[in-house]
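User: Some background: our group keeps a shared notebook of sequences we're curious about, and every so often someone picks one and asks for a predicted structure to add to the entry. Today it's my turn. The entry only has the sequence so far, pasted here. Could you supply the structure so I can complete it?
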Amino acid sequence: MAAQNIDDVVDGLAGIVREAERTGDRVGYFAALYRQVTVEIRTAIHEGLFDDGPRMDRFDTLFGNRYFDAYDAWRRDRSGPRCWRETFGLLDDADTVIVQHLVLGVNAHINLDLAVAAAGTDPGTDIQALRHDFLLINDILARVVLTVQDSVDALSPLLSLLDKVGGRTDERILDFSIRESRAEAWYNAVLLAGQNAAERAATIERLDTRATVLARLIARPDGIVRPALELIRHTESTDVPAVISHLDGATASTT
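Assistant: Of course. Here's the predicted structure to add to the notebook entry:
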């Protein structure tokens, strides 16, 4: 699929969510979260909250198409960026808990796709003009994450164990690639915007490599986090369609 505007992105994500609910595919977990973020961004565009609404529509469309391209490549022949292959490759792994699936998607989309989309929004222009609107998305993401956190808590009652054994709250787990990685994504976007084609390809390869390493750490954490995840797995919901529906309804404004 190829989106032409942010409405197409919302519709494409909604289609993935509906199909995932029908088939019981865990790909719907991150797609549900991502759909809600995109709806919130679209609302902010319509309300004139960004400096340049049409530019943000272009930005979000490029960003969404990065996800769709990775999703289509995986479905077609298990190809695509390595970090997305790591993420999609765990969809059938019953040992991977709900919050891990969410964070794996956030990691790949933020740590790889975001900088590429930002750099490509207005090629040949001053990328610094995008900075204010880029940062404004942080507030939207934080708001959606807080809401989805409540949904994950309801689905995974022992998730608070990760706070005790890992020094993180479940919000922090969901938020790790939003507050910290977005700052790095902006740095990389500026870098990409000033590079030639060969340099951009090398930078994108480096970003993919780093995101792949992070995906493996998220999927198979070391230390005492691993037994905590095992306990969480045994107590959280295993009804995939119900989990997708619950996550997709987390933000009232998206209904």
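Suggested note for the entry: Confidence is low (pLDDT under 50) at residues 167-175. Residues 112 and 207 are 5 Å apart (CA to CA).
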